[in-house]
Write a structure and sequence with these properties.
Number of helices: 3
Strand content: 25-35%
Structural class: alpha+beta
Strand order of the largest sheet: 2-1-5-4-3
Number of strands: 5
Oligomer: single chain
Helix content: 25-40%
């Protein structure tokens, strides 16, 4: 089920890929598996691991924007966006996705 929820994100204009990783940084699901820029998803997720509580971290590079959302169960939702995307629309989509994932994962984990 979480795969369907995460896959919905890549239908949003400007989102290139999305992935779900667990508390330890292991990849649980990736919407586009062979997407070149997101090959090292677990390594990227480990870099963002922190003891302080956060909701969203946004990293901007020359080629893309990456957003990491902390879920209630400790998992993280990671999205890659085009550099010229509409962040307002993407953030609204992320809010809906995070809510759906939280509701689902709280009852299954």
């Amino acid at each position: 089920m979480e795969g369907f929820i995460v896959s919905d994100l890549v239908r949003v204009d400007g989102i290139v890929n999305a992935a779900l990783v667990d508390k330890e940084g292991f990849l649980l699901f990736q919407a586009r598996e062979n997407h070149e820029p997101s090959q090292n998803i677990s390594k990227i997720a480990d870099l963002i691991r922190t003891k302080s509580k956060f909701t969203r971290v946004t990293i901007t590079s020359e080629k893309a924007i990456m957003m990491v959302e902390q879920l209630d169960v400790g998992h993280r939702l990671i999205t890659w966006c085009e550099k010229s995307c509409n962040l307002g629309i993407i953030r609204k989509s992320l809010e809906n996705t995070v809510q759906r994932l939280n509701e689902y994962l709280i009852h299954t984990i």
